[in-house]
Amino acid sequence: MASQEEIKGVRLKKIELLKAAKMEAYPAKVPRDFCLRDAKKYFADYEKNKKSASVAGRVMAIRGQGAIFFVVLYDGRGKLQAVFKKDTLDEKFFKLFKDAVDVGDFISVTGTFFKTERGEESILATSWTMAAKSLAALPEKFHGIQDEEERFRKRYLDILFDPELRNLFELKSKFWDATRDFLKSKEFLEIETPTLEVTTGGAEANPFKTHHEDFDLDVYLRISVGELWQKRLMAAGFPKTFEIGRVWRNEGTSPEHLQEFTNMEFYWAFADYKDGMKLVAEMYRHIATEVFGKTKFEIRGHSFDLGGQWPQISYVDEIKKQTGIDILKSSEKEMEKKLKELKVEYDGDNRERLIDTLWKYCRKKISGPVFLTHHPKIVSPLAKESSEQPGTVERFQIIIAGSEVGNGWSEINDPRDQAARFDVQQKLLESGDKEAMMADHEFVEMLEYGMPPTCGFGFGERLFAFMVGRPLRDTQLFPLMRPK
Asked: Which CATH superfamily is domain 160-310+368-475 in?
């Protein structure tokens, strides 16, 4: 079998053949009247009236020899067979096709539509031109790319040979369209907020750091979709806002976590977490129905129905039920002892991290959908404290298939409370907790001017990954790869 370098050498010589025939190998434009999907739609009319048409696409297969060749064209929207016959093409261009065209090339074909003896809709070529000459050979059609790393590096080939993967990314686009359409139907205004920040806010995560040359200032890539900015807009008088955008977190990789991903966050003035739960359940059902045509899913051994009831469970009570630990009263040593008994690895010995690790152990057993509520105050630095259960907050998370796929709360609008919460987070940062939240004193200043009661909520593309039953990395077009 010839190497890619040998194949490239042969194909470079074919470019010289094209050049000698005064045909460009890489023209800026070629004849094309419609895409191949529409060619099928117009086929009967063009065939009946013997009208000439031009189509273009990638050559996916060539069969035949001598005086006739059958070529499968593909343009991303459809396929069509092109037939090259010696007696319907200028002899020079028939020979040029035979000598210079390979599987993988993009070509334009002009001709008339007809059906073969087997009834296959085809175009009979009367002329053709090269659209882009391929120098590398496509992988063998039926096997595709077996090595996972190579698949991600050459995603363009992975998608080309895997219709299911192509469909996955079309579904993902519909997923975000459905999200956007739902929120706009509820009169949320779509906005944009900064991706470079002096302090990161809205989540607990280790940020990526870079340097702003013009300001000679260290800045961070955002870790939330503008939470603290969107809440400023609540103070500005916008009643409902949302943003769908990229966020970055400099943390580990897993089937549910990547360093770069897309999130949605909305903010709703004069609403609380109970209002948020009602809206979110409606939104998830809408997305599931619009994108997948169903509300029932089976994922990783869990079955759940987004169209059914969404019960509430207490963060504190669920951990106590599963582990016997009362996280509001137990000491750090008691929590560490329990984690060791459960054989759960944990990073850091501060109270917040220990509580979070206990919860992550417990959530794996929950199929959902459920609303997780009454989180302890220490793990929720931006959520309003609950008047029903002091020490906990008015927060809700959506739990599906043992994982969190949505997070919201009644926002703190008391500047004194928010400043005190930031102080706690600052001490955690100073003690070495990289995921603790940075203090934003300008945000506290905004609260001093007044922000209405507000509900905020967000989810990421992890929800889509769950719905299609794939690791998060599989659902990204171009996940980050180490250089070869």
From this structure: Bira Bifunctional Protein; Domain 2 (3.30.930.10)
